[in-house]
Amino acid sequence: MSFLPLSDRMRPRNFDEFFGQEEIVGKKKLLRKLIDSDQLSSLIFWGPPGVGKTTLAQIIAAQTKSHFVIISAVMDGKDELRKAVDDAQYHLRLENKRTILFIDEIHRWNKAQQDALLPYVEKGIITLIGATTENPSFEIIGALLSRSRVFILKYLDTKDIVNIIERALSDKERGFGKINIKIDKVEIELLAQLSSGDARAALNSLELAVNAKNVKGKNIEIKILDSDIKEALQKTHLVFDKKGEEFYNLISALHKSMRGSDPNAAIYWLARMLEGGADPLYVARRVLRFASEDIGMANSEALVQANAAYDACHKIGYPECSVHLAQAVVYCAKSTKSNLLYTAYEQAKKDAMETSHLGVPIHLRNAPTKFMKDIGYGKNYKYNPNFEEPIDQDYLPKELKGKNYFPLRDRPTPS
């Protein structure tokens, strides 16, 4: 076991060793009740990396005395699923034992792969526990989602990370309890804070800091300083607060660099975010927004580029998608800028909220029935393609007639 990373060695074996996620695994919470009463159904765990999704699945399997199988949606496909189903049928038939199939990053499976899984979930041959960092509403097929309970896991609190670190330092069987390590409380709290709610990052960084100073075969005191913590974090991943101020500082720097038409700065801030552990899909969504908010009709191709980058991130993931994001970011940085669409929509939104009581002009109304036509719905509407010349027709409520959200000098035209 010693060759395993510290984060694997210290993986909690039961709920007593599990820190965090009290909202779902507390003794009187729904998930805990389902486990204790052996009423477990298929589950989806949605949350960021390093917060306990895999660990929780393993604990559930142990608590319910189930056969446990892990599949990685990144590495495995239908062949591995068939083998898992065969194993499940074997254990169910000969041992009357349930099989929990844990699929890590289930959002990486396409619709066909998820469809192949569905019959075995429906028949109860397997109990699925899927883990995803993406919104399951968008990434998991409806039929599978409707047969599963979704639980949202959150970033761990600093106090939970502190508890995890302290347990690793004191555990003589799986942790560093047999090593003479001197680390003050302030350094432990620093490590917990800089790990940004990710227990795996905290333990990996602690292990790197200890190993860097550990002289094999000599029982000398290992003093861990704050500089050791920061260096270890920089080596495992760039220091990057995924939910705090620094996160928003970096995305702000990326956004403003693109707006300022500086492709060098934009690609630098992009690299800082991606190499620091930012979710590529989150960055891609922000670039998508930028393409219309800050460029818009000044260069409508920017939206196409940004959308293609998002699609690439979704299909192939990190690190391969970094070059697609770089293309979109540089393209947006070098494009002509205009916030016309943003300001126009904000004004239209304000008017819409203040005039929501106004009816749709009768000539614009839909008339699917004879009764509606008889009372005038759609009457006198002029179908534009039937006219060679521009026609005079009102499309706004009469109270807003003449309203112009696009000043003449800024009228949008396709690029």
Give a structural overview:
With 415 residues, the chain is α/β, with parallel strands linked by helices. It has three domains: 21-152, P-loop containing nucleotide triphosphate hydrolases (Rossmann fold), CATH 3.40.50; 158-236, Orthogonal Bundle (Helicase, Ruva Protein, domain 3); 240-359 and 397-415, Zinc Finger, Delta Prime, domain 3 (Up-down Bundle). Helices cover 50% and strands 8% of the residues. The protein has 19 helices and seven strands. Helix 6 links the parallel strand 3 and strand 4 (127-132). Helix 11 (199-213) packs across helix 12 (226-236) and helix 16 packs antiparallel against helix 17.
SSE arrangement:
Layout: H1 6-9, H2 22-25, H3 30-36, E1 42-46, H4 53-63, E2 67-72, H5 78-95, E3 99-104, H6 111-122, E4 127-132, H7 136-139, H8 142-146, E5 148-152, H9 158-170, E6 181-183, H10 185-194, H11 199-213, E7 222-224, H12 226-236, H13 245-259, H14 263-275, H15 280-295, H16 301-316, H17 322-334, H18 340-354, H19 370-374
Helix pairs in contact: 9-10, 9-11, 10-12, 11-12, 13-14, 14-17, 15-16, 15-17, 16-17
